[in-house]
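Hey, I'm writing a tutorial for new members on how sequence and structure tokens pair up, and I'd like a real worked example in the thread rather than a made-up one. If someone can provide the structure for the chain below, I'll link this post from the tutorial.
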Amino acid sequence: MVVSNFKNGMKRVPIMRWLISETRKKLPKVQGPKRIQKVGHRSYVGGLWDEMGTLQFNFLLKEGLQPHHYLMDIACGSLRAGVHFISYLEAGHYLGIEKEEKLIQAGIEKELGKEIYGLKKPCLIVSSAFEFDKFDARPDYALAQSLFTHLPPAYIETCFKNLRHCIHDDGVFYATFWEVEVEVANPSKPNDRGFFGYTRQQMENFGISNGWKAEYIGDWNHPRGQKIVRFRPA
């Protein structure tokens, strides 16, 4: 897919490559707690609150998620999808990990509610280092939705490596990404509001090189066009 017929005569370029380039020019310098306070917990995780929460929930149901399964939601944010999964899964079977404590707090207090939190007992951990071994349970399913879209390769590799050691041997991991046609020069540091683009081969290789088998799904009706890949332990 390409962009064409721009008024300024811009040459045809892959649309995602152009989008990434333009977005980086406008990246906010402030991230984390200060920006969460400024824009709110819903906007910080990308908005589209109801649409994206429902999309993730319905997708995993179609992929076979059942109440007795353990689900690890990597970069769970303020529980945009978590509110759906927590209500559906058995108590203690939702494993959420997020680096911003304020997002988790907002998710519990403003979205989930303390009553459901006490009843369903989700396991929520604050970590920026993919410390999946902090959970007492091993996941059957894992999801990283709009996480690798903000990370350079080294961080993605760490996620795959660490998750491989803790997921069940018959488990499955779903990860979304911005797909580009050719490799692009992504920033070396993570940015919560940045766009990092990868080719299909790059994304599949992140998993393959760390003990996974990759199954490209591609389109899954993401409103902004992120693609998704299914990974299983090799």
